[in-house]
Amino acid sequence: MPLGKGLFIAGSDTGVGKTMVSAGLTAALRQRGLDAGYLKPVGTEAQCVDGRPVNPDAVFVGRMAELPEPAWRLNPFCLSAPLSPLAAARREGVTLDFGQIVAACRQALDEREFCVIEGAGGVMVPLCEGKLMLDLMAELALPVLVVGRPGLGTINHTLLTMLAARSRGLAVVGFVFSGGGEGVELDPSRHANPALTEEFGGAPYLGALPDMGGGEISPRALRAAAGAWLDIDGLLAALNRATNQG
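^ ATP-dependent dethiobiotin synthetase BioD, sequence as received from the core. Prediction below:
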């Protein structure tokens, strides 16, 4: 299964469900026998876990995908303020080193057969001095899976995210929607959004995870949901194509 070394999960915005998708994909790939890992290289909104600052997303994915690493290994750089990484770092008077962030990503990619790397916020979020999240994506040169909301406005945000990734030579292997929150079932746009985004984005629609209830879900339930609602086979085929073309 020559998939390459990993996949970058990019959000069309913050809070769109990247973490739930990352957890579901990592768990589903591990269930298929792939030595899949996960990394959120930089996070904010830190909580203290075993005496270290860790983003809650990394704690969640570690639990859902039943990963053996301690939470801090899944999120090596974390800041306290609920801001973009650069804004949080400036508030705390610390400097995030781009080279160290890239090195942490490459180490995670080397340690596993395959690694799911989750960004923070959207692709144009300021990451560190002079660098956006998109710069990290370009440096790693991994295939990109875009995660967006299912409702009104998602076409614009998802297409812009694809455009930004492709502007740096990155392969967009597909897009998925996640959650949507209260009222999404009443949003008439959600029925047309997948097909229109696929039509204008030139990347396959690979499914949509429903609202899973966050911390109340079990690893088993999330694995089942990922298998039922996401096109894992389609993603694997797209990753193979991207690897062969690269």
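Residues 18-31 form the longest helix (14 residues).
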